[in-house]
């Protein structure tokens, strides 16, 4: 509290020297709550140490305001107590005794109103005592918290400050800003008589760092110190309260706790501020309440009207709040710290808060403020009689949905449902709106509210359209209750062939949902493929309903591999041409198109769908965002860009942790693909221990987890166990009609395991079967992989011919990782040390590095005994990227590297991100670990 107070101490010391020479004065210490006035006042006696100065002290307190002449008694008691022995019995003691008699509790002098008064002779008598004491040595008279001094003592102080001349005394009084005593001129007289007014300034950043060091015993990080300084605005009390609370919670003064320091609201500080506020007159209290209700950004006009103040009264109340240290500036209605709002709210009753919020909602509505601002006020009210409240809440929810905040929209709509006047279709529409908001983060609540709305709707079309608001399950079986509901409304509506217009579209979308619900049933899949054939080579795609149905039917053709990949790719791209990329697509079966293009090895042309991720990221934390990240991971995985795919898959899994269901299933599917490509044992173990293994009945996820389990067994040398798991998985997939060689490539792996356990005949049979399936499907990635598997089982010229054919096929594939794997095998088969082998392995290393698969890079480098055949990891980096990574390796930060190269920090971040991906590392730490090997 005494940091950076040297100037104030020096001014008081100067006043004491002047008093010793006969020039007495009054010094006033002012400032808002928490600036350390009392601490500074208590430090002043240190100025008297070693000097011939006598100190008189008195501390006023709110609880002692009725203790008449209490402050005067404290001062003269301290004078008598501090008098040396040789002065006792002389005039000082006698006159003090006389004054005590005058102020005796037994017979106190009273004025005509019954208040204690001080006789004229006593006033002069007390001054005479001070004059006697001051003649012997200068006096330092300290009165803390002048605003709490009892009235009789205040009268004597007002008398004294006009008669300081000749006393050789300095009277120092502390007075908190914002405290006045209406109708009592005594305090004003004392304040106006001050020769010197000292107002301690807020602490600097340097002083804040010293306080942090004192509190924790270690220096604080720069970011932490700045956070503490900014949040406390340099107020010592606020700063000490925050630091003490942080220490109590066990936090250290590190950068990671900077945000905590900014948001902390110490309870003790809140109570102290609330107590201070309760002692204020009505206008500043009402204005503080208005600011707490309307927020710091509210217009002064609205604040004044809510507080019941005219413009002049508003400015006066705002000035009082500033003097109290509760607002940041005298002309700015913004609280100094978040804890001030808490203190204001705690000083109000529940009824007062509700009344103010309701009044604020009406005030803002009638003044044309945005719906969301009005709705925010209505959320704080249990019930409201405003006839416009429901429509405002619906409008606010619509705005929140458009800006990507479904949780906020749901809060508005739940509040609107509390309105008891809503019945019938009006209530149904509100329930449907709420379900639409909830489907992005709470599918179970969405289903529940749709089920409540449907009985309130009067037509079959409306009921069917409401059911379609429930998001479909892209992977796995949907809840039986939802499927039953869809069957019910579809039967009620009738077949699409008998309908027209909007009703026909609704019927087609219902058909799409119900057909997709049977995608794990081979008979249903066969029927869906037949339905697609009936639509012809050019099915109608003009409406979104037609596109949804076609996407579902096409997915059946993909799973069963009943259509060739080229036809699937053509039709999938036609759907994309007609369908703009929006975030709403994740609530339809349209994402199945991405799965089809991945299976067809045709992902180069779906950039518009990738752009959807950027459009929906602002909805962070929802199922929508998780599914969009899964799509990104799937497309990147199909290109072999495993390191990038992992980033999106990991993000999707994190987003899905709160809301399992659909997002959790597809996120885990994406991550299993990454784990298998990376052969990352730690990631594999994490997936097997995750919630998906226990909760999902999805065939796709079950198969993926079996793949992962087989990978774990194979990594640990349990080849027979791995083979058994894979074969069981294959039988299950075949029984369900899932035959696609890209999506379910279990045969190549099982063939290799057969070879390892010494059963070449079974390995060859699986390889032949896979090649046949891949040829029928026609996707380059499947065919190239099948050729590589067969080549591995073949020796001599036949094996070389198959490998070269695999390379040629995979050069037409989007999957660079599969090409790198085939090139590695080809490089091993070629003459060691030859020019062709070296070139093949260099290309393989560059592709593996670009894909971000370090384990494969190491295998390629080891393919030649000298290690010279394969390109080093840095060979894939540009010259600028090599320079940036080298500077990072020397320990420079991004900003320092940018300054060194004369570019922006953003440019350095882009080069580093590209380098991470090419080298297959996750960040700066792994990069620094890799650098010695890169340059060895």
TrEMBL record:
Keyword Nucleotide-binding: yes
UniProt source species: Streptomyces asiaticus subsp. ignotus
Statement: the UniProt record of this protein carries the keyword Electron transport: no
Record-given protein name: AAA family ATPase
Span of domain HTH luxR-type: 870-935
Gene3D superfamilies, alphabetized: P-loop containing nucleotide triphosphate hydrolases, Winged helix-like DNA-binding domain superfamily/Winged helix DNA-binding domain
InterPro entries membership: AAA_16, P-loop_NTPase, Sig_transdc_resp-reg_C-effctor, Tscrpt_reg_LuxR_C, WH-like_DNA-bd_sf
Record keywords, A-Z: ATP-binding, Nucleotide-binding
PANTHER family attached to this UniProt entry: TESTICULAR SOLUBLE ADENYLYL CYCLASE, TRANSCRIPTIONAL ACTIVATOR DOMAIN
């Amino acid at each position: 509290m005494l940091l950076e107070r040297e100037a104030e101490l020096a001014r008081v010391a100067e006043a004491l020297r002047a008093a010793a020479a006969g020039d007495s004065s009054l010094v006033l210490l002012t400032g808002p709550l928490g600036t350390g006035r009392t601490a500074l006042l208590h430090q002043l006696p240190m100025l008297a140490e070693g000097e011939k100065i006598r100190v008189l002290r008195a501390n006023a307190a709110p609880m002692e305001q009725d203790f008449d002449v209490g402050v005067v008694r404290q001062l003269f008691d301290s004078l008598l107590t501090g008098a040396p022995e040789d002065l006792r019995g002389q005039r000082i003691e006698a006159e003090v005794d006389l004054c005590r008699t005058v102020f005796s509790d037994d017979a106190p002098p009273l004025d005509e109103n019954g208040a204690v008064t001080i006789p004229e002779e006593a006033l002069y008598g007390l001054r005479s005592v001070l004059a006697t004491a001051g003649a012997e040595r200068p006096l330092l008279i300290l009165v803390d918290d002048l605003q709490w001094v009892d009235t009789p003592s205040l009268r004597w102080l007002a008398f004294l400050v006009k008669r300081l001349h000749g006393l050789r005394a300095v009277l120092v009084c502390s007075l908190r800003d914002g405290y006045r005593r209406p109708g009592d001129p005594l305090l004003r007289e004392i304040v106006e008589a001050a020769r010197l007014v000292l107002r301690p300034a807020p602490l600097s950043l340097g002083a804040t760092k010293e306080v942090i060091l004192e509190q924790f015993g270690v220096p604080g990080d720069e970011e932490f110190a700045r956070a503490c300084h900014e949040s406390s605005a340099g107020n010592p009390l606020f700063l000490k309260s925050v630091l003490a609370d942080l220490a109590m919670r066990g936090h250290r003064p590190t950068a990671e706790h900077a945000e905590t320091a900014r948001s902390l609201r110490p309870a003790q500080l809140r109570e102290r501020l609330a107590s201070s506020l309760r002692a204020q007159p009505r206008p500043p209290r009402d204005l503080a309440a208005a600011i707490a209700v309307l927020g710091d950004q509210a217009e002064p006009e609205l604040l004044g009207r809510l507080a019941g103040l005219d413009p002049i009264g508003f400015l006066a109340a705002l000035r009082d709040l500033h003097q109290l240290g509760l607002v940041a500036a005298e002309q700015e209605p913004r609280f100094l710290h978040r804890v001030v709002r808490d203190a204001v709210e705690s000083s109000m009753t529940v009824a007062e808060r509700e009344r103010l919020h309701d009044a604020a909602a009406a005030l803002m509505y009638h003044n044309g403020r945005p719906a969301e601002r009005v709705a925010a006020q209505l959320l704080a009210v249990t019930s409201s009689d405003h006839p416009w409240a429901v429509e405002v809440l619906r409008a606010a929810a619509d705005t929140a949905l458009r800006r990507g905040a479904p949780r906020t929209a749901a809060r508005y709509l739940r509040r609107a449902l509390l309105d008891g006047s809503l019945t019938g279709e009006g209530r149904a529409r509100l329930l449907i709106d709420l379900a639409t908001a909830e489907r992005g983060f709470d599918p179970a609540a969405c289903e529940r509210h749709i089920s409540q709305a449907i009985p309130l709707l009067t037509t079959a079309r409306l009921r069917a359209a409401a059911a379609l608001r429930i998001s479909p399950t892209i992977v796995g079986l949907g809840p039986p209750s939802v499927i039953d509901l869809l069957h019910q409304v579809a039967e009620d509506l009738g077949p699409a062939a008998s309908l027209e217009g909007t009703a026909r579209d609704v019927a087609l979308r219902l058909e799409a949902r119900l057909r997709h619900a049977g995608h794990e049933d081979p008979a249903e899949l066969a029927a869906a493929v037949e339905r697609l054939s009936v639509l012809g080579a050019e099915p109608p795609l003009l409406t979104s309903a037609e596109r949804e149905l076609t996407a579902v039917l096409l997915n059946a053709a993909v799973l069963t591999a009943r259509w060739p990949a080229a036809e699937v790719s053509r039709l999938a791209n036609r759907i994309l041409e007609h369908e703009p990329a929006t975030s709403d697509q994740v609530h339809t079966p349209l994402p199945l198109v991405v799965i089809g293009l991945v299976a067809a090895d045709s992902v180069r042309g779906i950039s518009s769908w990738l752009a959807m991720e950027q459009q929906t990221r602002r909805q962070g934390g929802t199922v929508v965002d998780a599914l969009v990240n899964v799509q990104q991971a799937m497309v990147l995985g199909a290109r072999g860009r495993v390191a990038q795919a992992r980033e999106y898959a990991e993000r999707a899994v994190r987003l899905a942790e709160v809301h399992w269901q659909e997002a959790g299933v597809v996120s885990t599917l994406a991550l299993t693909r990454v784990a298998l490509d990376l052969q990352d044992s730690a990631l594999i173990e994490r997936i097997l221990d995750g919630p998906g293994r226990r909760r999902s009945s999805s065939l796709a996820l079950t198969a993926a987890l079996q793949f992962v389990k087989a990978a774990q067994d194979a990594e640990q040398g349990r080849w027979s166990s791995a083979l058994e798991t894979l074969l069981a998985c294959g039988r299950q997939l075949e029984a369900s009609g899932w035959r696609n060689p890209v999506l379910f490539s279990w045969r190549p792996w099982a063939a290799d395991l057969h070879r390892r356990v010494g059963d070449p005949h079974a390995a060859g049979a699986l390889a032949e079967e896979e090649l046949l399936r891949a040829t029928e499907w026609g996707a380059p990635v499947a065919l190239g992989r099948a050729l590589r598997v067969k080549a591995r089982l073949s020796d001599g010229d036949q094996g070389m011919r198959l490998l070269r054919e695999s390379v040629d096929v995979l050069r037409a594939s989007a999957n660079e990782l599969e090409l790198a794997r085939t090139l590695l095998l080809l490089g091993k088969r070629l003459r060691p040390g030859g020019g062709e082998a070296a070139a093949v392995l260099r290309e393989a290393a560059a592709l593996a590095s670009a894909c971000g698969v370090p384990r494969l890079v190491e295998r390629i480098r080891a393919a030649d005994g000298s290690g010279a055949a394969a390109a080093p990891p840095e060979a894939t980096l540009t010259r600028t990227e090599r320079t940036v990574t080298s500077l990072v390796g020397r320990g420079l930060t991004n900003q320092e590297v940018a300054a060194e190269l004369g570019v922006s920090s953003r440019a350095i971040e882009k080069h580093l991100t590209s380098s991470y991906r090419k080298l297959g590392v996750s960040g700066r730490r792994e990069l620094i670990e890799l650098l010695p090997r890169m340059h060895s």
